[in-house]
Amino acid sequence: MHPDATTRQILQQLAEKDLELKEKQEELEAQRGMLSAALDEAMKYNESLTKTLEELKIRNSELERLLYHSSHSLRSPVTSMLGILNLMEAEKDLHLSSSYSNHMMSNAKRMLDVLNALSTLYKLTTKDLHLSEINIDQTLRKVIDSQQAVAASNNVTLHYSMNDPAPMISDPDLLTELVKQVVQNGIYFRNTNVAGLVQVVGKIDEGLLHLDILDDGDGIAPEIEANIFDIFFRGSEKSGGSGLGLYIARKICLLLGGSISFSREYDKTTFSIELPTKY
């Protein structure tokens, strides 16, 4: 065979081998890319699964505490009411019966507060939102009006102001519950022998609803600051609430895409809430 022909044949064979190698390399690169993508997906799934498991652990822990404390919170007033009914049966005194009736009414309200809180927690757990356009000024005024009686019974004056109110899209029931829980915290957590004040100050700015709820109650001691949003946490024996109020408030804020924080200055505690005006 002619040398040139032999050389051309060798070069052609080398070119074919080179092409074959390139195709194999491209195939390997494609497989590597698919493997890398599959690995990334598996890692993301694993992270998601880990996060879900952590959330389930937290929920199970909260559920256990919820069942324990709820049964205790309901058992105490029911036991008290049964004792009062026995006394009423034994005493047959109309004056005392009136006093006993007041105690029963107070206990019934305590049970209703716990049941309402449990109903709200269920809604938060299911994340069952009902969004609609809200007249924020009207909604906040209704909340304040609904708390006037309990405020007066605790020697507290409520004050409300709103700058440039505008409509917002959110869940009206959850927004109402959020403000109510923080306002009630300011009403209950104090010395009722001294006249007090709870102020709700609102404004809308750059797509956010800003609410400051100020109270001149007992304040928040530094040693309990880290726990005030925990479930069933009560900062003082003076607290007449269920221990669920601020926990529910924080849950609502997170579900509505917002935040809640607090600050202390002199004799006032301020809870600051931020919520998007369009969920």
Largest sheet: 5 strands, mixed
* Mean pLDDT rating: 82
- Structural class estimated from helices and strands: alpha+beta
Specify the helix fraction band. Answer: 55-70%
Shape: elongated
Q: What count of helical segments does DSSP give?
A: 6
The CATH superfamily of the largest domain is Histidine kinase-like ATPase, C-terminal domain
- The CATH C-level name of the largest domain is Alpha Beta
Annotated CATH architecture of the largest domain: 2-Layer Sandwich
Question: What percent strand?
Answer: 15-25%
Rounded Rg: 32 Å
Uncertain parts? none
Could you tell me the CATH topology label of the largest domain.
Heat Shock Protein 90
Distance between the termini: 83 Å
Tell me the number of structural domains.
2
Report the oligomer.
single chain
Order of helices and strands: HHEHHEEHEEHEE
Total beta-strand segments:
7
Strand order of the largest sheet: 2-4-5-7-6
